[in-house]
Specification:
Blueprint: H1 3-15, H2 23-50, H3 56-75, H4 89-113, H5 119-126, H6 129-140, H7 147-166, H8 175-198, H9 204-218, H10 223-232, H11 235-260, H12 265-271, H13 274-286, H14 293-309, H15 311-317
Helix pairs in contact: 2-5, 2-11, 2-13, 3-4, 3-9, 3-10, 3-11, 4-8, 4-9, 5-13, 6-8, 6-12, 7-14, 9-11, 13-14
């Protein structure tokens, strides 16, 4: 989708803003954000755990197939609820774009990167994405650059830097892994901006279901690798792929879309600064990668930064 088209759609969204959410709606949006952060953080660890038995392509295809199947139980019976004009050329192009870039490209790049990097490093590098999303949202969706969003984002980024400083595995950073993580961050950022206008006419479930389905079709060339991995991998690794498909893919991308449809993209993206802190704790528990005092301090700073980004939204709601 061209930047001008994105800008036009974003401008229209500002001219016709949604009604303020009732308290119940606000609570559901916050719950959706929390679920997304926890499940996405677990994905970084899960990818590392199954990466020895599933190639990046096989893991990507497996996740997307399982995610599509899981979402089909909800999406298919409710297709009749979609508005008649949902499949216009703008929506179709946007859906195809974020399916290719996010569900296929992002996952493939991240899965490959974690063959070269540890989970914590990968999560840290991916977290340039909130900055990119805030910039893209300010330009293309006309969300502007709120003061507290910028201040909170810088504070949260400082927290992420402290986590990086405290990591004991920075000497093992692989250049290819770094490049792939940065590529994944760019793809995710662009996809979030492209997806938001689609959510004006489509539910989070259907938006995610189409994304995983189209992404899976794009990854069908990895079918042979997936079949071979399933036949030879330990049961624990295969169950790990099932987990990644159902929870960080089907559920977390749906809760993300739900929150995105009810929040500014820049403010929502700032919340994902918490993912590295959560990932460090999960890596400590599951991969025995012990965090340092710097890591704990960085997590606290990142949490404070995210809280600052929400100041403007709370005033608006009140």
């Amino acid at each position: 989708m061209k930047p001008a088209e994105l800008a036009n759609q974003g401008s229209a969204a500002r001219l016709d803003p949604p009604n303020p959410l009732p308290r119940a709606g606000q609570g559901l949006a916050l719950l959706a954000i929390a679920v997304t952060l926890i499940l996405w953080a677990s994905a970084f660890v899960g990818i590392r755990l199954v990466g020895a038995d599933y190639s990046p392509g096989a893991l990507t295809l497996g996740r997307l197939l399982i995610g599509t199947i899981a979402l089909s139980f909800i999406a298919l019976p409710t297709l009749k609820n979609l508005p008649k004009d949902w499949l216009n050329w703008r929506n179709g192009l946007a859906i195809l774009s974020y399916s290719l870039m996010w569900f296929a490209g992002y996952n493939l790049a991240l899965n490959t990167a974690e063959q070269h990097l540890d989970a914590g490093t990968s999560a840290l590098l991916i977290n340039i994405s909130p900055i990119l999303i805030a910039v893209f949202a300010g330009i293309f969706l006309r969300e502007g650059f709120p003061r507290w969003l910028i201040i909170g984002g810088l504070v949260a980024l400082a927290g992420v830097a402290l986590i990086a400083l405290g990591s004991g595995q920075r000497s093992n950073v692989d250049l290819l892994g770094v490049v792939l993580c940065l590529l994944a961050a760019v793809l995710a950022s662009l996809s979030a901006i492209i997806q938001k206008p689609v959510l004006r006419t489509m539910s989070a479930v259907h938006s995610t279901w189409l994304g995983t389905g189209i992404g899976a079709i794009c990854c069908l060339p990895f079918s042979g690798e997936l079949v071979q991995a399933v036949s030879s991998a330990p049961l624990a690794s295969s169950l790990g792929v099932v987990y990644l498909g159902v929870f960080p893919t089907a559920i977390a991308f749906t809760t993300w879309a739900y929150a995105l449809s009810r929040s500014n993209a820049g403010q929502l993206a700032a919340s994902t600064y918490l993912v590295p802190a959560i990932t460090v704790l999960m890596s400590w528990a599951w991969l025995h990668e012990t965090p340092t005092a710097w890591g704990f301090l960085g997590g606290i700073v990142a949490l404070c930064g995210v809280a600052l980004t929400r100041i403007r939204s709370r005033k608006t709601l009140n």
